[in-house]
Amino acid sequence: MKVNIDKDLVPMKAHYFLFNAGTAPVVPFMPQLATQLGYSSVVVGTMYMILPIIGLIAKPLFGYIADRYHQHRLLFLGGQALTAVAFFQIMFVPAVDQETQFHCHAGVSSIRYCSNYAADTEQQLETHFANRTLSCQMRCQMVPPMWDIVCNNWLQNKTQSCQTNSSKSWIDFDTYISMNDVIDEPMLNGKGRCLNFLIPHDRGVVDAQNVTLYCPKENDIFRPKCQMNCNDSYLEKMLPASRELNMSSAMAKPEFWFFFGMLIISWAGMAVVVSIGDAICFGLLGERHHLYGKQRLCGSLGWGVFAVIAGLLVDAMSKDGSDVKNYTIVFWMTLVILGFDMLASTKLKHTQTHMSSNIWKDVGQMFLSLRCVVFFLWCVAIGLGTALIWNFLFIYLEELAKPFDEGNYIKTLEGLVMGIQCFGGELPLFFLSGWILKRIGHVNAMSLVLFGFGVRFILYSMLQNPWYILPIELLNGVTFGLFYATMASYASIVAPPGTEATMQSLVGAIFEGVGVSIGSQIAGQLFDAVSARTTFEIFGIAAFIIFIIHVCVQMYLQRNVPYENGKGRSSTASAPASASASASPPTTVTNTANEMHTDSPTSPKNLDDFRDVDLS
């Protein structure tokens, strides 16, 4: 049997695959990277509240520009380039200054920890540990003069690798701290206190060699900033490994604004690419709206494959037992893959067949339809739940993973989670979305998505072992795959002629700019105020409540509100293609809510057999 391939759709499939493959290595890891850089969950939640608002502004704005000036392709390629460059720049963002320092001078070595810790911390540590000595792994920032001390005095030039390693910006070594020799003293600026842990006999291990951590008094004080891991849960509880900045402290740091600025640019670029890309896709499909899911599943395939690869590579390139992960490889992956995406996108053949003389007026008519307003509110509700998964699920997983494997394989687990989300969830649901929407309709699909969120969040709240999350991720097919196909299909069908990109941008902006934005802020505050587990439980209960409300509202609309929306209200001053569509014979609506018949044989609804889309 000969397989028919629509060559015009091949570049579209390639774009979905490559764009999702290019963003999969970075987007899911950005919240964890932010916490690793030293920002608190409230700061992360605030950033991810603002980022969707950027999408809320960018999507309708650039969608309007694309429709008004017919520059879909130019804006599409520009958004891809902007996304790739902005994400790549994040690789150079430095971490927040650590409060742990290694002090070495005149034959005395110690580890200095400065922070606003509790007043009785010294007493609690000495009571708990008594005369114990702890072994600690250190990773300290280095500059060339410091390497001279290490090579000449610690290693005494006995290793050939010393001069080779001197180009590194950090050094790893092991040492010991005596818990009965803890000195508490105020900081020089008076804004906190410092604990000094003395190192017995200046003992240390560098490159598997026992050394004396000796620093001559004629040299400047050797005091690099360090990360310390003593593999003791009580010490980690009393002295957190890194300082988490609150919002006011973060805003005072230029590196935060650089990080946040690059996120804003990348989010704006992705907003433009996603919304205009979907409009181009529906333009290529014409009246075959039900085939959208089969194009979009290529994106799930790309996301799933490269998310798993990225997780494996991050774990492989990070040091075992360290909480600090090395994300360098994922930024290079994004830059290269999005470059190939731009190349594939130049092959797209897209022309706008309809024009609207007053785009904002035509789109604004959608808000006069009660059913469309309910649809927009549904997008907001889904955005609230999606925010919790996108921005906080992996932070929750990392909390659960610490008691099991100290987080050594957490990025591998996160990669597998994204792989199952795509291959086990999104991909089959995108493939079947056209059939599902024909069988149960858009309205029932919307209710099913809400119910899926409730089940998913309640199961998250019951997790004890993080690896048990893998089967739960099959529900991502309902909560994202079916949702996204329903949202994009509904928006495309009801969009007045000539406003397709604007309409896709509008619903995307409502979903992300309103729903995801508010959800991120709520989730961040709940994470900080209660706990991750309780947050998921609260969101699960809320999802079930919204599900019940949505079902009741839709039953009321079917019984009491006639079918109407903005599709039939497009501007009478539209371009000829739009005008001819408006001049078609009038639609006759039966008294039965589930049955609609049009006199026009070319009605899009008749072609697609969608029974519950609100066409006049």
Class of the largest domain, according to the CATH hierarchy? Mainly Alpha
| Number of helical segments with 4 or more residues | 21
Say what the CATH topology of the largest domain is: Growth Hormone, Chain: A
Spatial gap, N to C terminus: 41 Å
Q: Low-confidence segments, ≥5 residues, pLDDT <50?
A: 565-612
Q: Record the strand order, biggest sheet.
A: 5-6-2-1-9-3-4-7-8
Question: How is the topology of this model organized?
Answer:
Blueprint: H1 10-23, H2 30-37, H3 41-69, H4 72-89, E1 100-105, E2 108-115, H5 121-129, E3 133-141, H6 144-154, H7 161-165, E4 170-178, E5 182-186, E6 193-198, E7 203-206, E8 209-212, E9 225-229, H8 233-238, H9 247-251, H10 254-285, H11 292-317, H12 328-345, H13 359-364, H14 370-405, H15 410-461, H16 469-472, H17 476-494, H18 500-529, H19 532-560, H20 576-582, E10 587-589, E11 596-598, H21 604-608
Antiparallel strand pairs: 1-2, 1-9, 2-6, 3-4, 3-9, 4-7, 5-6, 7-8, 10-11
Helix pairs in contact: 1-11, 1-12, 3-10, 3-18, 4-10, 4-12, 10-18, 11-12, 11-15, 11-17, 14-15, 14-17, 14-18, 14-19, 15-17, 15-19, 17-18
